[in-house]
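subagent[fold] <- orchestrator: predict structure for attached chain, return tokens only, no commentary.
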Amino acid sequence: MDNFIENIIKKLKRKSLLRRILILLAALLVLALIYNLLLLPTDLVAGGVNGIAIITNYVYGIDSSLMILLVSSACLLFSLMYLGTERTLGSLLATFIYPLFVKLTAIITQGITINYDDKFLIIIFAGVIGGLANGFIYKTGFSNGGLPIISQILYKYHKIPIAKSSMVINSMIIIIGSFFFGWSMMMYAIILVFINNMMIDKVLLGISSNKAFYIVTTKEKEIREYILNNLKHTVTIFNVEGAFLEKRRKVLLSVIPKRDYYKLTEGIKLIDPNVFFVVEDAYEVKGGK
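subagent[fold] -> orchestrator:
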């Protein structure tokens, strides 16, 4: 079984390697353009190595691409020391290519004039396009390196959740940025991070067009017939046991398109006023008849 799993992992890594690298390079180029066109000129410190580079550029005049390279290289070294070679390889390309793109696009974008008066428009555009680019990077299986490596190390050795440590690290950078650029810029940065994360989820998970219903009811037969005959959707039934009363019950699972959401929720409530159900997004549905 171990060899089988290892073979699957190796196949995933080899799958369309050239295509994945090209997507990574395109996404890094987009992120570099966003940094030089939108983030650096407006002093939008939204965490990460970009935020550190904006602060040090403002305070000490250090070239952004150099600072990004130094911080990312230090994180890559920590990754090699504490996470191992295999996990470090995924961050190798982005660590050196991204600061190079930042340097090159800084020259290219010098002749581009943008009106920065409407900062809200800037953060929406930067959040949407940046989130899409980051999402495609994660979807290729690569990493954009940088400070997320620190979160991975903290999780491996201290079991601190990655999301929690990333939030703390990025929040510290955003707060430091607010001392130099003002508290209103901090609020803009928070909105930018929110939009960015939302778009990453959309790229990774897609836009949900289906809903998965988990239904617990005493009128299992009636609800099953309603879904099968009236809504024309399939139902899966499996046995469960409640933890409190230890009663054996049956749970009905049905995945339906969003257009039938109202019909199913209102229909099952009419059939069984005491029905208990949970609804969640089903981002990918394959197979079944």
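orchestrator: received. Logging for downstream: The mean pLDDT is 87. The beta strands are 210-216, 236-241, 248-257, 276-282.
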